[in-house]
Amino acid sequence: MFKKIREDWEMLNRPIYTGERLRENLHALTVVSIFTAMLGLVLMIVDLVTGDKAMFATAFLTFLGGVGCGYFAGVQKNRERAALIPTLFCIFAFTFYTINGLGEGSAMLWSLMAPIGLCYFVSVRNGIFVSLYYTVFFFVIFYTPLREHMRPYYTDAFLTRFPILYASMTAFVVISMTQYHRGILLENEYAEKLSEEVARQTEVAETRAKKIEQMSFQTIQTLASAIDAKDPYTKGHSTRVSQYSVLIAKALNWDAERVNDLRYAAMLHDIGKIGVPDSILNNPKRLTDMEYNIIKSHTVMGGDILKDRIMIKSAEDVARSHHERYDGRGYPRGLKGEEISEEARIAAIADAFDAMSSNRVYRNACDYDHIRDELINGKGRQFDPHFTDVFIGLWDRGMLDDILQQSTTDDDGSIEASGLLREVMDTILSQNVEETDILTGLMNRGAGEAAIAHRMREQGGAFAFLDLDNLKVVNDINGHDAGDRALHLMGEILRAHVADGLCCRMGGDEFLLFMPGVSAEEAENRIQAIIDAFEREKAGVDGVAAATLSVGVVMCNPSEPYAQVYHEADKALYHVKQNGKNGYSFYSHNSDPAAIDQVDLEKLINGISDSGGYEGAMDVEYRQFSRLYEYVNHLSQRFCHPFMLVMITLRANAGEQPGPDELDSAMYYMEQSIRQTIRNVDVLTRYNQQCFLVILIGADSEGVKIAMDRIFRGYYKMIGSSAFSPSYSEYHGDDSAPAHSPAPPAG
């Protein structure tokens, strides 16, 4: 217990008033001091009128204490001296009040203010010290022979009860204010860590800025893409802001050089986000005030990064000022009206419009009428009125249509970036890449292939390509949880059997394994042990019985390039697949092609049946779907056999802002309804996070309508109420454009 008290007392010695909190506390002390001085002045006048000299003296001390504390807090900004005055005043003044029974005994009641007042405004330690002093003081003068001296001023009941009341209040204040002090310390530590992280990120950004000086105009778009990549929901944002800004500038008849300068300045308007920690930038929860201030700091960081560094004249200003408001209520400098540059005022309109008109994973873009209202209502407040009218005029004439309709997926490959900038971009994008696959505990593809390729250059060994057979069957029959269990089991087995090797998950159901320094015989024994372990241990895992393991192995030496070894292992794996899966094969450089083609047909057919045997519509990945579509389309054209391509889309209801979990749930129930409705010959794929594609063989528009009605009713029956409503578009190979149809009513 004493150790805990000592630790708490040492903790209370740590200051909590630093930075902005110190400024606020000095301001509060100044205000309280002014109030105290005024109170002392009023009491002096009252006591002077009543002729109470003792009370006049203490009132005068109150006045002097308020003036002194206010001077040190408000003028000198010396908190230690400012805090000393009220502490000493409380000790001497209230002791004098009590002993002399001033104010007919009422003056001592001012001592009730000491614990909480000193703890909050001065320091918890000072408050505790004064509170304990008065607790002991009251017990001494009220519970000892000194009590007789106090009887003329106080009743017996008061003399008995007041020390107990004061002690109870002291205990309450000490406990609560100690917790308050501890909470502030934790908050300060968190703020300090955030500040350190911001400083670290800013240092990284400034380092990158030295390289940005050398970049050409062609490479700016590559850097803009890297900036947008820090936030997965803003891909292409910088490019679109640049395009909107250029349209406004051209409508204002700016000269070509100034328009071009704005084009690239707008592309870099969010460059300061490089210095914002991803944990804050991509935080889905409500931001704290501190985190929001860090988000806002990207304007200052962006301006500092670009200051005097590149040939674009307005880049620094646009990065620093694109969140200023026309009415002066923006940030970071609170500029107003024409104090904000024209370039920054234009970028502000473009930035806000793209933010409102872009889709998010959990909601659609804002309605165009809503966007128009926001722009009009923001004239003269958030936006420059004239520039806003110009922008709305461009919108009304259809000048924004091409930008609004373009895909948000940028083809970075079309941009020819310098090697220097590519290094900057790769470093930025790799800052927060996780190297471990969460599901299996192995390295992910990027980290794993890099590690294996590096080790292969140092030492030869056995390279294995492993494939978890029939994982799709496991997922389709027993659900994706069963597939995840199979992958997790595979990760555990690989880690247990190749402690001296390197292994990684390639993605999906594929794995790589490199066993350095082993002979072919050792490699064969290890691979067989892995296959046997999987067969043995999968029996204890629910729902994964259909899964098997196929392995292609190649012996390699350091002189062989990684790509060649990978390709040869893939060939060996293919040979296993040809012969019915569930085994291994070593690649031989001297293999007889004819021997490889000698496949056990019966075993192959059994393997195909095992991996493809399930009921319901054909559910394939998108790449397979696109090939099947082309195949079906050719059959339709050649044999006049009709089919319909249908896109089913889930959109958020008006006024709803559902989250990602609600979208995942809605997509799951829609997939189940589709599976239960369409036929075995039809083909289904999930196109993106909100859409499915379905090929309905032998169907016409009326048949599609009937099928969609059943699917949508099944969806509503399974999900009940939903924040998402389905709709569909149908397309026939001979049609020139798709037809759109709404969802049927939920009933």
Can you offer a commentary on this structure?
Mean pLDDT is 79; it is low at 407-434, 591-599 and 611-616. Strand 4 (548-556), helix 25 (562-578) and strand 5 form a beta-alpha-beta unit. The protein is of the alpha+beta class. Helices cover 60% and strands 9% of the residues.
Poorly predicted regions are 407-434, 591-599, 611-616
Strand content: 5-15%
Radius of gyration: 37 Å
Proportion of residues in helical segments: 55-70%
- Structural class, by secondary structure, is alpha+beta
Strands of the largest sheet, in order across it? 6-8-9-7-10-11
Mass-distribution shape = extended
Task: Give the overall pLDDT as a whole number.
Answer: 79
The separation of the N and C termini measures 67 Å
Q: Strand tally, please?
A: 11
- DSSP helix count? 30
Brief account:
This protein is of the alpha+beta class.
